[in-house]
Amino acid sequence: MKRGVLAEGGYVVALLVGLAIANFFPRLAEWLEEAIRPELYIKIAIVILGAFLAVTAAGKLTLATSILLRGVAAIVEAYLIYWAVVYYIARKWFGFNREWAAPLASGISICGVSAAIATGGAIRARPLVPVMVSSLVVIFAVVEVLILPFVAQTFLWQEPMVAGAWMGLAIKTDGAAVAGGGIAESLIMAKAATEGIHYQPGWILGVTAIVKVFIDIFIGIWAFVLGYIWTNHINPTRDADKARVSEIWQRFPKFIIGFVATFVVGLYLALGTSPAITAKLPAQIAEANTFRVIFFILTFFSIGIISNFRKLWQEGIGKLAAVYLLSLFGFVIWVGLIISWLFFSGVKPPLVT
Amino acid sequence: MSEPDIRKELLDAPVEPLLPIEKKLIGWSLGIGLVLLVILVAVNHFFPVTALG
Questions:
Q1: Contact residues, chain A, for B27 at CB < 8 Å
Q2: What is the spatial distance between Cα A207 and Cα A340, in angstroms, rounded to a whole number?
Q3: How many domains does chain A have?
Q4: What percent of chain A has pLDDT over 90?
């Protein structure tokens, strides 16, 4: 347990070191720029996580399947409810034009960076727009990941699966959300342990990851829907520039294929092979898990490095931040909490036997 | 585009009124979303998460 808390504590330290470099040593941040790839690092970590989750789920297949099915609720919430409300707020209350409002709504409501970029491309926005929105999403994800896991530990430690789903729904960007789920898991398991409850590790983080992966799956389809509306009805364009069905595949986050592949292989090794192989599996997965932790730490460090608050403020991000602030604290966090509660309250991770 | 231009653009952008197609997009998204959520909550009620492995 302590080892788990220390590992997640390492994420926060990596984030703080990255933030310090970005804001106080900008030349060092520039020098590191080429290696700062948070989206790449988290996707590698999620692919490794697939095998870990498979082995964790193998012992409790019915529970795991039930959780998977409830990932559908996350899709409905992110794409149909959050997006519509944020888009309306950005357009009606803050007066943003469509080019800014659509990527902003996707960034705040779906999954941050990749959604903002996919939407920007789909509606044919200037490249600058999703880049600015992505920067904003990362900044807020940093703030959320430093606060929400601790809030979850304080108020949701008796509802661990609600906490896991909430991290996936409330924290934007894959990296911050999944790592936030990891921090929440360690904190909640530590608190539960003081009460004599010892949960199996991996389930809270697993719910967060599944919620996030389910949301990611539909980015391509949503971008196509927006692209179709924009290129046919809002800014009618020449046939060659209209949204094409092939864009769904182009924008599909391919790392999900890796996640599913490692999950399926892990499940096969856990359930479909000889007892001798199955017995060796936990130790092998633990080794792979070490790499997952390393990539999580790289993700956090990278997120810190790209979070230069002063530069973003100078770029005029204040009005965008106002929409984000209002949407996030006005309803994204609370609706996410209500829906997580509706679907996961009373569900507990298996206990260590 | 230089940095001050973005700030100016965001502050001075002319208001674009919501088009009927945008209102439809918002309305249909919310409507379908709420209906699906109610259905999923009902499914969740009748087929609750089970811990039986």
A1: 84
A2: 10
A3: 1
A4: 25
